[in-house]
Amino acid sequence: MDQTLFLCVDGGGTKTEALLADTTGGIWGRGLAEGTNALSVGKTRAEEAAKAAVQAALRFAGRQPVQLLHFFIPGFSECFPLDLPIAQKLSGDSANAYYGALGGPDGIALLAGTGSFAVSYDANGRKTSVGGWGHMLGDEGSGYDIGRRAVRRTLQAMDEGRPVTALGQDVLHHYHITNPTQLVHTIYHAGCDRRQMAALCPVVGKRAMQGDTEAADILEEAAAALAQLAGTLFRRLCIAQAPVALVGGVSKLGEAITIPLARNLAELGLSLQAPLYTPAIGGVLYTCSLLTGRFPSPEIAERYHASYQKLIKES
Q1: Which domains does the chain have, with CATH numbers?
Q2: What does the pLDDT look like over 87-96, one tens digit per residue?
Q3: How far is CA 267 from CA 34, 184, 246, 272, in A?
Q4: For residue 33, what are the β-bridge partners?
C-alpha cells in the first residue's frame, strides 16, 4: 500500500460513502452510513453517520497515517471538523460531482437535483459556475422546477375550465387532495416545501416515458433550460469545446431527459456524455490533485475506478 493515504467522504441527505485511497490509483477501504446533510437529518445524526462511515473505512489503513480527511457534504458546516486526529477539509458537492462525471478539467457538469447549476474546473483547479440562484430566483431545469411546471399546468387547466389530465391527477394524488381548487392552499399551507415539489419530478418522468405528451413537454422545457445554463457557461469559458454531463436526481429520469437535453445541447454546438464515475470517485480524483499538485492522469483515474469496482464486488 502507498504510504500517502487519504479519506474522501461523499454525503447527502440519505446516504454517505467514505473511501480510503492512496495517490497512485488504489482504493483500499470503504465505509457506508446514513445521510450527513445536517439540514436534512439534524446535526447529531449527521455527525454520527459521518464518524461511522469514516471509521469503517479507516479500519483498512491499519497503522499507516492518513494525510487528509476530505468531506464533500452540503449542509455539514456546523458539524465540521469532527473530533478526529486527522487533518480535515470541507468542500461542497460540486467538485466531486464534476470530476466524477467528467474525470478531468475543461468540461461542463450540469448539476440538477432539487436545484440546478452548471460548473466547470480548468487545469489549474479554478472553478466557474452559472445558475444556482435558488428556487425563488432560478433553479430552472431542476427537480423542483419540473414539479412546479406540473403543478402550474394543473392549475392552468383548472383556470381554463378543462378537465384534470392524467398528470394533473398525479399531482393531486401527490398532495393528497382530490380537487385542483385545493392545490394552491395545500401548497402554501405547507410552506411551499421545495423537496415535496421536487418529489414530483420522477412522477413527470414516468408519465413521459409512458408517452404522455404533457409530461414530455415539461421535460422538453426543462432540458432547454439546462442547455441554456451549459451554453452560458461555455461562452464564459472561451474554449473550443467542452463535453457536458448531467448529474443529480434529474439524471435518473434517463432518456426522458437526456434525449431532449442532447438535442438542445447539439443546437449550441455541445455534446452530452454519460458520467464516467461516481461522485465518490470524483472526490478521490480531486483530493489526489490537491495532495500531489497535479491532476491524476486518465490511467490513474481508471485505476481508481477499477479498484473501486473490485472493492464493491468483494464487500
Answers
A1: 5-103+276-314 (3.30.420.40), 131-272 (3.30.420.40)
A2: 999 998 889 9
A3: 41, 37, 17, 12
A4: 16
